[in-house]
Write a structure and sequence with these properties.
There is one protein chain. The protein is of the alpha+beta class. About 10% of the residues lie in helices and about 25% in strands. It has a 7-stranded antiparallel β-sheet with strand order 4-3-5-6-1-2-7.
Amino acid sequence: MVYKIRVILDTKEDIFRDIEIKGKQTLWNLHLGIKSAFNLSGEELSTFNLLEEDGTIVKSVPLEDMSDDGDGEIMSDVYIDEAFETLGDKTQFQYGLLDLWEFFCELVEITDETKGVNYPITTYRFGNAPLKAPIKNGKAGGSKNKKSTMSLMDDDFGFDDDFGVSNSFADEDDNFDDDEEDDFNDDVFEEEEDDTI
């Protein structure tokens, strides 16, 4: 059987691809299909997060085993028909580390295999994929409306209120005398006597 999976880029615009893949292929094959469909370059780390209906992550399946004992489940261990058991099943796909691409994958159709087709294959494209990973708020690159961190130093921050900046400093120790001279002559250091005869 062939599974049609809609892969939606997590961005403000509607950008998605339909990828057909065999049920007995693995999440590693789907990972390659998504890279090809969205022109993702490089060999970045990636992860599939298998989701419940409410979006809760059931299990994370990385590209490579990062566990200490070396027996963790990886993409090439999980078949497509295991990850997507019924229509509407969803996963989240994350690609990259510093530039993080996030996608939502949903099983939309199960059909018969077409002979001679090399799966996975992109069967439908909607929207132009950006050259760089979109920022989480849906804007690629820098935002013109970005707030400056200097606003923390504004009067609204309440620095004067919190720390009581004023010119009237009252000395808490009334017995302290600033005019007392430092006299270190009373500090006596006795020299050790030489006991050798």
